[in-house]
From TrEMBL:
Domain of life the protein comes from: Bacteria
Keyword Repeat applies: yes
InterPro entries the UniProt entry points to: Ankyrin_rpt, Ankyrin_rpt-contain_sf
Family annotation (SMART domains): ANK
Residue spans of the ANK repeats: 35-67
Keywords carried by this UniProt record: ANK repeat, Repeat
Name assigned to this protein: Ankyrin repeat domain-containing protein
Length: 131
């Protein structure tokens, strides 16, 4: 899996606190990786929370899905990126989006015997609703 055109440069600029040139912003907002991931998917999995916040600020839909019909939150909950999960929830990420197997994130975690992760996600969802 590789970065799509412009993602690394955009990340570097955002990390440095700089604005993206209009052409670069347009490019990173519209392109996807070979498995349908957006820049938000990629860096939600790989990046720092402060830069992910800036990526969301560019206008990315936090509920966009990849080729597996998984949202950034779905991917992050699976790999213990809890700070990013909380950030995505704060920006309106949904937990009811079904993947290509017809499971929402809770069902997928439970099906993989990751009950502790499902419980942690439930707590984060409850906390985000109380804010």
């Amino acid at each position: 899996m590789a970065h799509a055109d412009g993602w690394i440069r955009a990340y570097e600029l955002l990390e440095a606190g700089r604005d993206l040139p209009a052409d670069l912003r347009e490019r990173v907002m519209s392109n996807r990786s070979g498995i349908g991931e957006t820049m938000l998917h990629w860096y939600a999995i790989e990046g720092d929370a402060d830069v992910v916040e800036k990526i969301i600020g560019l206008g990315f839909d936090v509920n966009t899905v990849n080729s597996f019909h998984r949202t950034p939150l779905f991917e992050c909950a699976t790999i213990d990126r809890w700070e990013i999960v909380a950030l995505l929830l704060a920006h309106g990420a949904r937990t009811d989006v079904k993947d290509r197997n017809g499971q929402d994130v809770f069902e997928a975690l439970e099906d993989q015997d990751k009950h502790d992760k499902a419980e942690r996600l439930r707590k984060l969802v409850a906390e985000s609703r109380s804010l």
